[in-house]
Amino acid sequence: MFYGNTCKSLKMACIIWPFVTNYSHSTIRVPSVALAENVDLIEHDSDIERAAFALKAMSHPLRLKILCAIGEQELAVQDIVDYVGTTQSNVSQHLAKLRDKEILASRRDANRIYYRVKDERTLKLIDMMRDVFCSKGQ
């Protein structure tokens, strides 16, 4: 049986393995750069909650498609409707959710509303998801 433990003073992951022998128990210490880097995120509950909040907002397929449509540009609602291929009412509801969750920013110009991705880090996340999940010429 394995037990995970963080050795902050040693900055390494400690895997304690009760090694049952006639003599003693053994402890195996394995350095883990990945675990050491992830400890910062785990220690800050507000960061975890913010990440979960944003990922939940983007988790609907149409909202993700909207984010991919907008990308690094600023688009009017009708342009987004044309790209995603659904009704303006449906798109507007999803845009409102993304705006309320601070994923998108909007501005009004006369009778048109334009949307853009509010945070550049969200664009990086979308790019990473595209790399992982989108087929490339397959």
UniProtKB/TrEMBL annotation:
Gene Ontology terms for molecular function: DNA binding; DNA-binding transcription factor activity
HTH arsR-type domain span: 43-137
Pfam families linked to this entry: HTH_5
Organism: marine sediment metagenome
Protein keywords: DNA-binding, Transcription, Transcription regulation
SUPFAM superfamilies: Winged helix' DNA-binding domain
Keyword Transferase appears in the UniProt entry: no
Record-linked InterPro entries: ArsR-like_HTH, HTH_ArsR_DNA-bd_dom, Metal_resp_trans_reg, WH-like_DNA-bd_sf, WH_DNA-bd_sf
UniProt-listed SMART domains: HTH_ARSR
Official protein name in the record: HTH arsR-type domain-containing protein
